[in-house]
């Protein structure tokens, strides 16, 4: 596995994580080792996305850069947006979805890297987007105070909902039955069937990252050193722990045999990996850490052994003229 992260200093870092059996009764040892750095962007990195073969990074320089993880080479750049790339999401290995300050959502072929569809999605910036696990729907939020649902099969808007504030994060639950919308320091939890709010979590500080650790647990991080795990059915805080010495910028999680891991990046320059037991309310325990000595902005984890069977969006969502906007 490899940790990939971007920073204000325009650099992409990659760290190979080595796992070694523990000695006589000791825990397994995890050690991150510097593997690769690339200074490809002309401005700070703002987003990163990972699939089985590639890492893509978005930047304030208006470009998306592609890195082949298996060959360990830069694979080129995508230039369609006019403004900062705010969000990047892979759906399997078949497609990449990007959103930016220009209000566009672009769907890219993840093999030829053609822009299959360019949609004028929001009157303001696109701040976040998320594809449903089925690949049929996507959600996006922007600075026009709207939450939009997209039909990915037909490549058109399916529903527009006005919200009271600008939203900065939207995310489907792993089951696709619920989704969350984050506005500054508030998380609204929606039920898909009714499109109505069924619960709200409020924090004291601005929220920067809210990944689903499981289908019932949210990790909530932001402008403080503390990370909290919430049960989003009961809305109760299961535990909290001091993850860093400065504000947290990004959080992600993954599972490997015998380990449920939470990875956290901060502006203090550290990436830390934590072992979490979802069946217990105890705080996670630290597995390992690495100091990049940079101000980190975005984070991803590349798992070479993972294969994703959902590597294509529904075929009807595919070819459309490259420069067509809807």
UniProtKB/TrEMBL annotation:
Subcellular location, record wording: Nucleus, Nucleolus
UniProt-listed InterPro entries: PAK1-Kinase_Regulator (IPR051959), WD40/YVTN_repeat-like_dom_sf (IPR015943), WD40_repeat_CS (IPR019775), WD40_repeat_dom_sf (IPR036322), WD40_rpt (IPR001680)
Keyword Repeat among UniProt keywords: yes
Broad class of the protein's primary localization: nucleus
Any Pfam family matching the protein: WD40
One annotated GO biological process: negative regulation of signal transduction
WD repeat ranges, renumbered to this chain: 78-109, 119-160
Keywords annotated in UniProt: Nucleus, Repeat, Ribosome biogenesis, Signal transduction inhibitor, WD repeat
Domain of life: Eukaryota
Alphabetized SMART domains for the sequence: WD40 (SM00320)
GO cellular component: nucleolus
Quaternary structure and interacting proteins, as annotated: Interacts with PAK1.
Purpose: Negatively regulates the PAK1 kinase. PAK1 is a member of the PAK kinase family, which has been shown to play a positive role in the regulation of signaling pathways involving MAPK8 and RELA. PAK1 exists as an inactive homodimer, which is activated by binding of small GTPases such as CDC42 to an N-terminal regulatory domain. PAK1IP1 also binds to the N-terminus of PAK1, and inhibits the specific activation of PAK1 by CDC42. May be involved in ribosomal large subunit assembly.
Record's protein name: p21-activated protein kinase-interacting protein 1
Lineage: Eukaryota, Metazoa, Chordata, Craniata, Vertebrata
């Amino acid at each position: 596995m490899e940790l990939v992260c971007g920073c204000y200093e325009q650099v992409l870092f990659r760290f190979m994580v080595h796992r070694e059996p523990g000695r006589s009764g000791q825990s397994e040892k995890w050690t991150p080792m510097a593997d690769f750095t690339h200074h490809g962007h002309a401005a700070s990195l703002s987003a990163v996305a990972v699939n089985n073969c590639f890492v893509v990074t978005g930047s304030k320089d208006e470009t998306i850069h592609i890195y082949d993880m298996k060959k360990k080479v830069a694979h080129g750049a995508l230039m369609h947006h006019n403004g900062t790339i705010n969000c990047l999401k892979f759906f399997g290995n078949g497609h990449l979805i990007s959103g930016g300050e220009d209000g566009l959502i672009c769907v890219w072929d993840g093999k030829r890297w053609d822009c299959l569809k360019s949609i004028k999605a929001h009157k303001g910036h696109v701040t976040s987007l998320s594809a449903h696990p089925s690949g049929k729907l996507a959600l996006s939020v922007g600075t026009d105070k709207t939450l939009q649902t997209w039909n990915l099969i037909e490549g058109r808007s399916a529903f527009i909902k006005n919200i009271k504030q600008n939203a900065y994060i939207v995310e489907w639950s792993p089951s696709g039955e619920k989704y969350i919308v984050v506005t500054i320091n508030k998380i609204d939890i929606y039920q898909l069937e009714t499109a109505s709010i069924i619960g709200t979590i409020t924090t004291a500080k601005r929220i920067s990252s809210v990944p689903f650790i499981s289908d019932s647990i949210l990790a909530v991080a932001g402008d403080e050193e503390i990370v909290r795990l919430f049960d989003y059915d009961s809305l109760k805080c299961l535990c909290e722990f001091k993850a860093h010495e400065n504000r947290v910028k990004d959080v992600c999680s993954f599972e490997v045999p015998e380990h449920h891991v939470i990875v956290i990046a901060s502006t203090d320059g550290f990436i830390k990996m934590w072992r979490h037991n979802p069946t217990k309310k105890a705080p996670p325990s630290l597995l390992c850490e690495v100091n990049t000595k940079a101000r980190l902005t975005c984070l991803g984890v590349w798992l070479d052994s993972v294969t994703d069977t959902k590597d294509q969006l529904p075929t009807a969502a595919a070819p459309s003229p490259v420069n067509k906007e809807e």
